[in-house]
Amino acid sequence: MNNKFYGKLIFELSQTGRQAYSLPKNECSEYALACLPSHLMRQQAPLLPEVDELSVVRHYINMSNNNFGVDTGFYPLGSCTMKYNPRINEEVATHREFVGLHPLQCSETAQGALAVYYCLQTCLADISGLSEFTLNPYAGAHGELTGLMIMRGYHMERGDLKRTKVIIPDSAHGTNPASSAVCGLEVVVVKSRPDGTVDIDDLMPLLDETIAGMMMTNPNTLGIFEHNIGKIAKAVHDCGGLMYYDGANLNPMLGKVRPGDIGFDIMHINLHKTFSTPHGGGGPGSGPVGVRAGLEHLLPNPRVVKVSEDGFETFKLQCSDQSIGSISAHLGNFGVMLRALAYILTMGREQLKWVGPLATLNANYIKESLKDVFELPISGVCKHEFVFDGLKDKTSGVTTLDVAKRLLDYGFHAPTIYFPLLFHEALMIEPTENESKQTLDEFIHIMRQIAQEAKDDPEMVKTAPHNTPVRRLDDTLAALHPVVTWRELQAENY
Amino acid sequence: MDGLYYSESHEYVKVEGNLGFIGITDYAQQQLGNVVYVDMPEVDDEVTAGEEFGAVESVKAASDLISPVSGTVVEGNEALEDEPGLVNKDAFANWIIKVEMSNTDELANLMDAAAYKAMIGE
To answer: Taking CB atoms and an 8 Å limit, are A476 and B34 in contact across chains?
Structure first.
């Protein structure tokens, strides 16, 4: 039970003059202040909350109790792969020997960390069927940009400067066109067929000597495996382009299909999705990028390489003039890499092969159990996720938004809603392989109950949530008139 | 609404002589939900039939605006800058840009109200 008083804003708990600690007098302060130019000196004390330590603790503990995460409940957020983050990952990542490293430490004294980096990039190359990986990109979209820079670099080093366009399916994640634009490439959209797969008849006329490549997820955004991938990859390669694999939906492929084996040349992996590192609420993420043989020299600087000297194997940082350059400070988010490697090694090759099939089984179990009450626009077997187009019975006027809000009342995180844009009332569910049959059954039971409530008491569903710390928020007002600081809130009130 | 020309991407043109008033249809505003921002071109900018000239952002999605006709922008609906929600109140009264059309033959490529209604399944 949360305490309403301590759940207020920290500024509202402030009492003028109250402090948590008495610090000893700083004997340097007057001297230090005298050295600063007067125009850089603050004339008034900053407006900070003045709160005792116990109140600060109570405030933040109460706040944290309002948090929802994969550790508190089922989190079927489609396209996000909200996996459980095994505790052993944290155990490994918080080892003193790793935590105490400095990013500027010379590589001779950080051999253990470089061994971790090297081992993970080797594992990822093996899992994805590509030649080599860099772990430097900070997150998925950063990986996309890195991959596209490699694609552009490949054409430029051949002197093929006409290739300025990237083909992207209309069902793609929004980051694909955004990354292309940031990379200075023009986006050409290819249409989907009614089942969500790429329309090959629409694709063929787009292929010419201006195409740098094509970006795809497989399975696609609707959770459907792209059966024509061989044909698509061949056509894109025949016109001189490269195939880019967006690893957002890699989870159902793990151990079953390797992107490198089905025609992809470049890819990124979201470690924070497929490899069980934390995400949501700030990550941090990690977006390793892999390339097929022949493109390794373009990978960003620096790269971690293994060298043998006098019978000893050591790891070194290597920079190359042919590289696209440096894309991040140091070597990316190292703490995330430790967690991902811990996951891969604790799972092992044989167990990792079960991730995809179980994620697929769970998604299909929910889909088949709910398709009589929710509209299923694409029937048949899906992979790791699927999309409903709202309630089957739309006469009550209860929308996807209302269903999502009502789910919060039952302690479930809502699925992804109103994405992809191919359907008006999209509700996108991805359970992951982690959930027990009991959890899935409970979710199915509650979804059916909400469908029934929509018939019996639509007004109650339309005004949900009723049991959450705050009720339904005004999205429009928040977008038009955001109040995000204490100062702004004070200005509102006076 | 009768008398207007409609595109497949849910824009309409209301024609007065050589002038075209371009906006999004009532169906489009319903699907978008509450509009929070309308991005429109400057006066004297050129627009081309089939190409993007701005965007409408709602709480659900941001959607490109595709011009149904070619021409030069003579006016943008400034009222939408302060109150983008006008598009939701009356999409047909609150056009987004007024264009001096350079080729009225392009209107023949657009749909009439009956054909548009059939397309959206009404």
So the answer is: yes
Give the minimum alpha-carbon distance from B34 to chain A in angstroms, rounded to a whole number.
Answer: 6
- A480 in reach of chain B (CB within 8 A): yes
Whole-complex ipTM: 0.73
* Rg of chain A taking only CA atoms, in angstroms: 26
The backbone torsions φ and ψ at residue A250, rounded to the nearest 5 degrees and listed phi first, read -70, -25
- The b/e string for A480-493 (b: 16+ C-beta within 10 A; e otherwise) is beeeeebeeeeeee
Among candidate residues A467, A471, A462, A445, the one with its CA nearest the CA of residue A399? A462
What pLDDT is attached to residue A1? 54
CB contacts, 8 Å: A480 with chain B: 36, 84-85
Q: What is the pLDDT of residue A44?
A: 87
Within this chain, do residues A50 and A168 fall inside the same structural domain, yes or no? no
Q: What pLDDT, in 10s, does the model give residues A300-319? A: 999 999 999 888 899 999 99
Residues A5-52 have pLDDT tens digits of 888 899 999 999 998 888 888 777 777 777 888 888 888 888 899 999
Angle at A368 between CA A365 and CA A372, to 5 degrees: 145
Q: Give me Rg for the CA atoms of chain B.
A: 13
Q: Is the dihedral of CA A218, A222, A225, A226 positive or negative?
A: negative
- In the numeric block, which tokens belong to residue A443? 């979710």
Tell me the pTM. 0.88
Which one of A170, A475, A476 would you mutate to disrupt binding with B, by most B Cβ within 10 Å of its Cβ?
A476
Beta-carbon separation of A476 and B61 below 8 A: no
Our CA-based measurement puts residue A484 at a distance from the nearest CA of chain B, in whole angstroms, of: 17
In chain B, domain spans: 5-120
Tell me, what's the pLDDT at A4?
Answer: 82
Average pLDDT over residues A166-191: 94
Residues A376, A437, single domain; the answer is: yes
- At A19-31, the pLDDT tens digits run 888 888 877 777 7
Q: Does domain B5-120 have CATH number 2.40.50.100?
A: yes
